[in-house]
Design a protein that fits this description.
single chain; 335 residues; alpha+beta; Structural Genomics Hypothetical 15.5 Kd Protein In mrcA-pckA Intergenic Region, Chain A; Pseudouridine synthase; nine-stranded mixed β-sheet; four-stranded antiparallel β-sheet; 8 helices; 21% helix; disordered N terminus
Length: 335
């Protein structure tokens, strides 16, 4: 998939027609290859090749220019003389177990993440692949634009992992991981490393990553002389594994989909700019259960109220001091 650009969508200005001065709503144009990919025809690259070969028509006219833009609301797009319509977007959470591949198909017949999903009849993408030995949260969707934005380093979406590493990982090694470790394709770095304790001779660490090179965490630890014994992804952005057991899947809730779109900068504000963060709920303080106890005389607070007078000390009955006082009182009465 290609990286998205501002040219994928273009707003076309329209003029008012007739006596009314109210302008008609703007028309949004979309790249033809992107439209075909979102309809599940093929990947963006493959759709561009289909356009060059003349297999795509728009409103009856053959299109061979890859950069052609269309109105997705009104255009009659056909691929090999069959009408193309965008399919509805689906989003699935998977708690991936060990031994399952993060791919749509395998030539050797091994289990893939699609085997954990009900049959949807849609072409789904893995958002942030996990290697065969890693476990944890995985997002499957046919929303190619969102999948790209959630994985591209430009958007910096955080992914949180818990790793069990052989040996004691020193503070110097953790600092080196945040500064960067040289791999074959360049320098790789993590955003944050936090020790969570030890299990025997192994170290347990929380790692936050904002880029996605192949087996990046395992290779970084190998460079530092440590072997990753287990790696589990716990969160994508603020979204954590919830209500999905290992080896199972569930559809994302509307609130989770909104948060995913916000992370991908697909949620626009009134000014057209991406929404940086989800609107916060108003801070409603709970009323005091006993307001009378918190205020002193004349509305003063408990700390500013005058302290109460100390009670005189009176020993308990049966103690030596109490018996001594009683004997003195009896002697005084007898006199």
């Amino acid at each position: 998939m290609d990286d998205e650009s501002a040219e994928d969508w273009q707003e076309q200005p329209t003029e008012s027609v007739g006596p009314s001065d109210t302008p008609s709503p703007p028309v949004f144009m979309e790249r033809l290859a992107k439209y075909l990919a979102s309809a599940g025809v093929a990947s963006r690259r493959e759709c561009e090749e289909y356009i060059r070969l003349g297999r795509v028509t728009v409103d009856g006219a053959m299109i061979t220019e890859v950069g052609t833009k269309i109105d997705p609301q009104t255009a009659d797009v056909r691929f090999d003389d069959e009408r193309v319509k965008p399919e509805p977007k689906v989003y699935w959470w998977i708690n991936k177990p060990k031994g399952v591949l993060s791919t749509s198909k395998d030539t050797h017949g091994r289990r893939t993440v699609l085997d954990l999903l009900p049959r949807t009849g849609k072409r789904l993408y893995c958002v942030g692949r996990l290697d065969e030995e890693s476990t944890g949260l995985l997002l499957m969707t046919n929303d190619g634009e969102m999948a790209l934005r959630l994985t591209h380093p430009r958007y910096g979406v955080a992914k949180t992992y818990v790793a069990l590493v052989a040996g004691r990982v020193t503070p110097d090694a953790m600092a080196q991981m945040t500064k960067g470790v040289w791999l074959a394709e360049g320098k790789a770095r993590v955003s944050h490393v936090k020790p969570l304790g030890t299990i025997g001779k192994a170290s347990r660490l929380q790692i936050v990553l904002r880029e996605g090179k192949n087996r990046e965490i395992r290779r970084m630890f190998a460079k530092l002389g440590h072997k990753v014994m287990s790696l589990h992804r716990t969160a994508i952005g603020p979204l954590k594994i919830r209500r999905v057991k290992i080896g199972e899947a569930r559809p994302a809730s509307p609130e989770e989909i909104f948060e995913l779109r916000r992370l991908a900068r697909l949620v626009k504000g009134p000014d057209g700019a991406p929404v940086a963060q989800q609107p916060s709920k108003p801070n409603r303080k709970r009323p005091a259960k006993h307001p009378a106890k918190r205020a002193g005389v004349g509305g003063r607070s408990k700390l500013s109220a005058r302290p109460a007078a100390a009670k005189p000390f009176r020993p308990k009955k049966g103690t030596k001091k109490a018996i001594g006082r009683q004997s003195k009182r009896r002697q005084g009465r007898s006199r």
